[in-house]
């Protein structure tokens, strides 16, 4: 037996939080009866309807996508821009991105129809590491990079400690390549961090998420995660990212 909102989220319809709202609004029926209580538990034999449509359990799918630049981390866009779901039109399950990458940022993005799994991975308390490679304007000093490592004030709140390493630089072109590892996921965080130290990002890519990387993939390509990889990711939400 599992809580009703969790079953709805696991079916890939919506997040658990939105499922709770739908229950409270009377949009969910169990065995023909409207249910408004969030604590109700259901089993495999129960008939669940959401907005009049019977719930069917989808097979859980987990993918790694190499998101290109100029693609929205969304399943639709009112401006008709390209979205990440465009790379999964042959997959019958409805997949959603785990977190997001900016429109102008490329790199590793997880896609799944397992809402509970996605919400757990995105929860800040689990501190899942993400590694970025940034091409920035100018050449940051050791002192400037140390500021990023120790945390900078961003929109009234200090960023968590980061791992920062200057990979290379070009004095003539006045640019540098910097590796940044963070576990937070604030909106455009890496770009804003470099803005604060006076070295705007010119190009940004997420190269790794926890133990996963982009090896063997080109921009726009994907692969399905192995059972072992999914198991390891789920373990991170129990024990943290102890690599």
TrEMBL record:
The lineage of its organism: Bacteria, Bacillati, Bacillota, Bacilli, Bacillales. One of its GO terms (molecular function) is rRNA pseudouridine synthase activity. GO terms for biological process: enzyme-directed rRNA pseudouridine synthesis. Belongs to the pseudouridine synthase RsuA family. GO terms for cellular component: cytosol. Coiled coil: none annotated. Residues 2-61 form the RNA-binding S4 domain. The keyword Isomerase applies. It comes from the Bacteria. Keywords: Isomerase, RNA-binding. PANTHER family: PSEUDOURIDINE SYNTHASE FAMILY PROTEIN-RELATED, RNA-BINDING S4 DOMAIN-CONTAINING PROTEIN. Its EC number is 5.4.99.-. This is Pseudouridine synthase.
